[in-house]
Amino acid sequence: MDIGKILKNGWELFVRDIGPLIVGALIAGVLSVLSLLILAGPLFGGLYLMIVRRIREGRPAEFGDVFACFDRFGTLFLAFWGGGLLILLGLALLVVPGLLLITIWVYMFPLVVDKGLSVGEAMSRSKEMVMKGGFWMHFAALLVVCVLTIVASIVTSGVGNLLTVPFFIAFVVAMYFVALGEGDLVDAAGGTVVPVPAGSAAPVGGLTAPASPSPPSAAAVPVPGAAVPSAADVAAPSDTTAAAPEPAAVSPVHTDSPAVDEHGHLEAHCTQCGATMDASSEFCSICAAEVSGGHGAEFVPPSISKGTGLPGTKGEDSAED
User: Fold this and answer.
1) CB atoms within 10 A of CB 300
2) Range of the domain at 125
């Protein structure tokens, strides 16, 4: 909890509605004295409601708002007299107990006005909020404000109470919203410019400033001397997948010159795997390589002499016959 910031927020809230707050404090003081403090609870509850509405709804305070809490007369009457008497009793005994009670019940009136809680619920919830936010931090904040109001009252011979009382209420309400985790509403209601991220709603009743644009990424910054891509390059994404190379054509395998085996069949050797194969075959039966230059069955090798009479051939002797 930043006491200095809360003091600033309280002062800004007081200044924004200074006219209705001062007049409201004057009305509440006079009528409370005239009614023997019977009307004090709801009248001062109206002053709290002025600040709560300014923060919660962005609604400017009006002079008639000081009477706006008379529909909760009973609750605020008990809050003022019940809590007030216990605090006065603590102050009368040893002072310290009274200061402790003032600290833990500081949010009693705001909770009744803002949340509509009963007196007992408001006291319990106020204590929880104070303990969660730090008891001694709250104690120090209230001590600072009380010292300022007392000094101002002494210097102005009591006339300054018309300023210090509504300022004290504005300070307590600002601290109340900070304790609720809604300090951004206080900043907005006080007139502080609050940056709002794009796409999010602005706080009610406050001034907002657009969020700072994010810096461009390194990829978006042009590099001097670098080639600028054309519109066609940007529109059509480059194909990063390399085309698969076409399989190389398999060259036909040439065989050795055919020869005749012992049975008179034409044979050749595959130069790819060296296997013996029929010279008339187009493919090697071992490696299945294609053979070029194969010879047909009618091929007569030059090594066959005239008149040998080998099966499947015609020699010269038979030709003469």
Assistant:
1) 14
2) 3-195
Token pair of 269 as six digits: 């050797």
Q: How far apart are CA 191 and CA 209, in angstroms?
A: 12
**Are 158 and 31 in a shared domain?**
yes
Neighbours of 306 (CB within 10 A): 9
Q: In this structure, is residue 151 part of a structural domain?
A: yes
pLDDT tens track for 269-321: 677 777 776 666 666 777 766 655 444 434 444 444 444 444 444 444 444 43
How far is 105 from 98, CA to CA, in rounded Å? 11
Sequence-distant (6+) residues with CB within 8 A of 244 are none
Domain assignment present for residue 11? The answer is yes
- Nearest CA to 142 out of 112, 179, 113 is that of 179
**In this predicted model, what pLDDT tens digit does every residue of 190-199 receive, in sequence order?**
876 555 555 5
Residue 311 lies in a domain: no
Q: For residue 168, give the nearest of 10, 62, 6, 1 by alpha carbon.
A: 10
Place of tokens 């085996």: 261
Number of domains within the chain: 2
Structure letter (DSSP) for residue 82: I
